[in-house]
């Protein structure tokens, strides 16, 4: 992805940077299709119960478990989370979560091997060591885990104690995903996340010493006061930690959706051109360091499972980002969590009190969802291959649905404008996002989104 000529001048294909309307366009991240803003209350607990019961015998599962609490509020955060000062609220929530696990497990049984378990938040490491053990033990009691199942946990290294590290290792955690975002002091103060490099390095060292050897590092570009020099410094320092994977996300400033983002002044945010330069810089520095670029914003060492899945065409995308998890069913547990089943998507109530009310009444806490049509499945397959592989043969994907590229004439016509600007190449039924335009893959995928202009969905900018 070299946007520099020999003189050092930038040479973006067909003056992409002049099209700030495209770079600033708001389009989904496509961690699902249809995307979450198009879920609706017409799909509820009854539908979910039926979908769980209809899972084919032996179908592997993934589990996602949400802990919606933090001890401080990061102003850039777009997650469903609440700041708590006392552990009572966390302990009380855990009691309800255990009851939901019982409800779901009773419908699924142990006929479905769990291939992947992910704890997210919020901050899962806000759990006490005893509750980490309790929750992990409960899951292993209620579900049948595959022998080689991956167990990933999102880690806040600030305040990560040795007892917590020991509890995670004893619970069987195999991968730790550590939020760093940016190591520049000005940026950390602007997002209310003070995290010295020594804190991150200590967490990585102790996790590895405890046997949790697979480390992911999460970075963010487009943050307030962020510069190319500062991002280069952050990448250089985190490369010293030798993680297996990086994720480099673009900050989505949506204060109309997350009110605390109003604490970030818009005039401190980099513009579309600066964001693109930061994205390009991260891509270049990480690939120069030997990491393989994965889809839009992930990077992995060549021998990591994510890089191997990408090389073999097995890469997938879900609500945690890019994954090598091949399970066709993802079961979400906890407030706001989303499940993805063959029949459709469901989301639990985001409000902890409403989530609690449902579970304590013995009800599945589903707030909304969407049932998939064959047209949804076809378009999802096209979008996923674009997001994962940067290329798709529409004829090949559409054939199992009794369709072909001819059924996407309108979409291909709309792609022609993007092709003229260097964002995509069209060769009959085959479309490809050039490596130099990788940052614009969401713009290309959005052409196939039949829901995009319906309703009042709010999305992040394309770059």
Tell me what the structure shows.
The structure is a single chain. The protein has 463 residues and is an alpha/beta fold. The protein has 2 domains: 36-371, Aldolase class I (TIM Barrel, Alpha-Beta Barrel), CATH 3.20.20.70; 373-446, Arc Repressor Mutant, subunit A (Orthogonal Bundle), CATH 1.10.10. 35% of the residues lie in helices and 20% in strands. The chain is built from 15 helices and 19 strands. It has helices spanning 20-23, 45-53, 88-108, 129-142, 162-171, 185-190, 197-209, 228-239, 272-288, 305-311, 352-360, 374-389, 394-398, 409-420, 441-446, and strands at residues 61-67, 69-70, 82-83, 114-121, 145-155, 175-181, 214-221, 245-250, 292-294, 298-300, 316-318, 321-323, 329-333, 338-341, 344-348, 366-371, 391-393, 425-427, 430-432. The strands form 5 sheets. A 9-stranded mixed sheet has the order 9-10-8-7-6-5-4-1-13, sandwiched between helices. Strands 14-15-16 form a 3-stranded antiparallel sheet, covered by helices on one side. Strands 17-19-18 form a 3-stranded antiparallel sheet. Helix 4 (129-142) packs parallel to helix 5. The longest helix is centred in the first third of the chain and has 21 residues, at 88-108.
């Amino acid at each position: 992805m070299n946007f520099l000529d020999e003189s050092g001048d930038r040479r973006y294909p067909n003056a992409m940077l002049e099209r700030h309307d495209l770079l600033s366009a708001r389009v989904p991240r496509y961690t699902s299709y249809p995307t979450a803003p198009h879920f609706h209350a017409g799909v509820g607990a009854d539908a979910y119960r039926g979908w769980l019961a209809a899972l084919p015998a032996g179908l592997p599962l993934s589990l996602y478990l949400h802990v919606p609490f933090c001890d401080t509020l990061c102003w850039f955060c777009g997650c469903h989370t609440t700041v708590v000062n006392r552990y009572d609220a966390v302990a009380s929530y855990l009691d309800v979560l255990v009851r939901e696990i019982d409800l779901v497990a009773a419908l699924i049984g142990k006929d479905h091997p769990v291939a992947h378990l992910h704890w997210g938040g919020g901050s899962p490491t806000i759990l006490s060591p005893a509750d980490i053990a309790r929750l992990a033990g409960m899951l292993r009691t209620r579900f049948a885990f595959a022998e080689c199942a991956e167990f990933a946990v999102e880690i806040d290294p600030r305040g990560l104690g040795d007892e917590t590290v020991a509890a995670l290792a004893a619970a069987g955690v195999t991968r730790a995903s550590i939020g760093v975002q940016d190591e520049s002091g000005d940026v950390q103060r602007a997002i209310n996340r003070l995290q010295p490099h020594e804190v991150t390095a200590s967490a990585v060292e102790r996790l590895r010493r405890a046997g949790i050897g697979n480390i992911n590092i999460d970075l963010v570009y487009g943050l307030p006061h962020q510069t190319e020099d500062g991002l280069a410094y952050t990448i250089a320092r985190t490369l010293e930690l030798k993680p297996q994977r990086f994720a480099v996300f673009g900050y989505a400033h949506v204060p109309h959706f997350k009110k605390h983002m109003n604490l970030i002044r818009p005039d401190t945010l980099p513009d579309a051109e600066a964001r693109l330069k930061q994205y390009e810089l991260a891509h270049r520095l990480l690939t120069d360091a030997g990491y393989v670029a994965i889809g839009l914003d992930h990077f992995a060492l060549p021998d990591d499972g994510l890089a191997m899945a990408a090389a073999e065409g097995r890469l997938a995308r879900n609500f945690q980002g890019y994954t090598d998890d091949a399970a066709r069913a993802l079961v979400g547990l906890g407030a706001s969590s989303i499940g993805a089943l063959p029949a459709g998507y469901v989301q639990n109530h985001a409000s902890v009190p409403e989530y609690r009310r449902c579970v304590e009444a013995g009800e599945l806490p589903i707030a909304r969802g969407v049932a998939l049509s064959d047209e949804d499945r076809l378009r999802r397959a096209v979008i996923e291959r674009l997001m994962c592989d940067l290329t798709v043969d529409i004829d090949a994907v559409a054939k199992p649905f009794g369709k072909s590229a001819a059924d996407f004439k309108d979409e291909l016509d709309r792609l022609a404008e993007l092709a003229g600007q260097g964002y995509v190449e069209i060769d009959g039924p085959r479309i490809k996002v050039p490596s130099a335009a990788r940052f614009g893959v969401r713009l290309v995928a959005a052409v196939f989104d039949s829901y995009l202009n319906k309703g009042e969905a709010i999305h992040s900018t394309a770059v």
